[in-house]
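Design job #97: recover the sequence.
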């Protein structure tokens, strides 16, 4: 269950809305690290694909540091396991018949569901969902850099 109340506004939205500048929180400390962590060895191919997909954007947001490398590797391995369970369930179905004729769910169903619960926790940790990103205090970009939306305000 998430935090109660409305989602916090991004710093740029508060400035545009002139939302009581006295309450604005200053940007958090920027990581002193300047290089992106390298992918740890031992990841399977699906986990490597996920690492390549998310590592660069997380690093650019200032969320991924060398200290987070292990947690991101665990997340990537969970994604890989989830894909394997899904593939198995697509091939064999979600239920099977026992020797006595009873229908039971495959063990992969419970493993997939547990894997999905853990993935959701890591998604919150790294801000991989919109809701999690809105609640995070991300480092602010340089004020000289204008994105396309800020340039439209002028």
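Job complete. Output follows.
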């Amino acid at each position: 269950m998430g935090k109660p109340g409305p989602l916090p506004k991004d710093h740029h939205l508060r400035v545009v809305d002139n939302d009581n500048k006295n309450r604005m929180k200053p940007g958090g400390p920027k990581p002193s690290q300047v290089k992106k962590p390298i992918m740890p060895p031992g990841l399977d191919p699906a986990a490597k694909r996920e690492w390549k997909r998310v590592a660069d954007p997380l690093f650019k947001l200032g969320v991924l540091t060398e200290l987070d490398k292990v947690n991101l590797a665990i997340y990537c391995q969970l994604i890989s396991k989830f894909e394997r369970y899904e593939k198995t369930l697509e091939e064999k179905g979600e239920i099977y018949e026992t020797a006595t004729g009873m229908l039971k769910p495959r063990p992969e169903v419970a493993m997939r569901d547990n894997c999905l619960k853990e993935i959701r926790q890591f998604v919150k940790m790294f801000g991989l969902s919109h809701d999690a990103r809105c609640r995070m205090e991300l480092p602010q970009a340089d004020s000289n850099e204008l994105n396309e939306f800020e340039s439209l305000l002028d």
